[in-house]
Known about the structure:
By secondary structure, chain A is an alpha+beta fold.
Amino acid sequence: MGNNILLGHGSGGKLSHKLIKELFFTYFDNPILKLQTDSALLTLERSTIAFTTDSYVVDPLFFSGGNIGKLAVCGTINDIAVSGAIPQYISASFIIEEGFSLKELERIVSSMAHEAKKAGVLIVTGDTKVVNKGQCDKLFINTSGIGILDDKYKSISTGETIQAGDKIIINGSIGDHGMSIMAARNFGNFKTEIKTDCASLNHMIKEILDTKCLVKFMRDATRGGIATILCELTESKNIGIEIDESTVAVNENVCGMCELLGFDPFYIANEGKIILIASAKDADRIVDVMRRNEFGRTSAIIGEVVNNHHGKAVLKTGIGGKRIIDMLADEQLPRIC
Amino acid sequence: MGNNILLGHGSGGKLSHKLIKELFFTYFDNPILKLQTDSALLTLERSTIAFTTDSYVVDPLFFSGGNIGKLAVCGTINDIAVSGAIPQYISASFIIEEGFSLKELERIVSSMAHEAKKAGVLIVTGDTKVVNKGQCDKLFINTSGIGILDDKYKSISTGETIQAGDKIIINGSIGDHGMSIMAARNFGNFKTEIKTDCASLNHMIKEILDTKCLVKFMRDATRGGIATILCELTESKNIGIEIDESTVAVNENVCGMCELLGFDPFYIANEGKIILIASAKDADRIVDVMRRNEFGRTSAIIGEVVNNHHGKAVLKTGIGGKRIIDMLADEQLPRIC
């Protein structure tokens, strides 16, 4: 196929067909995709579904523990899974800069295929556009996805059953993804290697739901970190939340990099972390189940829903103080996902 | 909101929320979107669906008869409708260059809302990313979509029931979209204004299917024009197709511009044209129904499936000759959609 992407790879003509057959069909191999219909035809086991979309513009494309392709697949899987749905089908749409390396594209596509297989989802439809050199920065990927949803889990994404006394749970340390990107950019000339936490959490989430414990809310803590989720949630539900800072794990090198750069890890993007809310009686059981999964080894209860300061999330700091967690006004880390 | 897009509009923080509330929620107004869940929760009337995705990178963003937003909504609706499905839900994901005009974004979002409403679909989930100035060219939009599919129409997108004698139908003139973009680029300094044919064809397609005539194949003739569809179809089904050039309408100014620029209108993108295949006995009836729709006034039978030159589409030219329609090797018009 040559070594680089040409404008013709996005023309819909011979070069496009070659790229689709030799690259996408080879890696995303499945009978639905191979029908080459305008739309993928799918027969779902349920008629209630979760449907989501995200575009990925992360820079650089490759970083420790992942790349834009893995991120795009995991991100969409997680958006579906935190809604209580079982992710099943994904679309993949590429906007590629003319001259981009075919070898790098293959590495990215291969990661996507690997991650989709691990998570048990099929990549069933796609699109490729090529723009002239300088009109986009290397590669952007959009993934949209569909999962089937059991009606009894419908309230998980809206959080309508949350009440005072419920516990806030997270499946591990915060800030790893954002700081892995900063490290990959060699920002501040650090010699540290921080690995992204990017992972598909659908299997862990299924294990939680299978316990029959009542999960009242889940959301993945991506762009804006856990602070942004807590702010959105307290504001939209007019509830109070108290987080105990000492229970929130931050890896040592992430903590160090944040301190030096002046970032608060609570606002740093994660790509494999969820905030989960459950009643006090179920919380320990859920944490136990999460800890048995490879992506939840250090799961912990980090706070609770309280019956005061409605509309606000408050952080109890290590030295005994309290401060309000506010929503980020500006962008601290562009192109983090 | 100020006048221009800032990096903070893509941060997930305060500015993002402001943009979502003041722009997207205002225009795409519907209860599913407003739940602000990670995924849109949908209850479908059928469990067989069509699922599709496309990214739009058209340049310029505005052209006669449309803009990137209208194109993105119509394109995804048409991909679903030509599969025999009823388009219902769409996602919209924006990649925006820092500094982009908020007023232009509003015009584009307003077009999307208008087009979705006309077509009877809801925009239920979305995403916004902002990249630094120079890292993308103004604005790219991805739309993915879901339509419900009656099992009896499953063979329309695969074309498995096509046989010799079947008629090839199109709903009007070719090449309008591609040449409208070239005119908007002021390519060759033309003073002509050519209007795109960009339109949502789902209502017309429903009228056709409601006749109970047997539709054997449909596809929208976008990137690569009708030539590319005919090549793909003859090759993948190993059938022969003969097109009568004199029956294929090309608007006068499109024809003139193509001649001057050295383009063949058969390869020029359309955004409101479908190729439909039906049995000879149903063809006239279908054309009648199409002509009654605003987007099918000049519908015509333009050829038929023949029992020779299998794997090839052949054009019978005005002067009595025949030539093979071959697939485009290279890209003649980058960023046409």
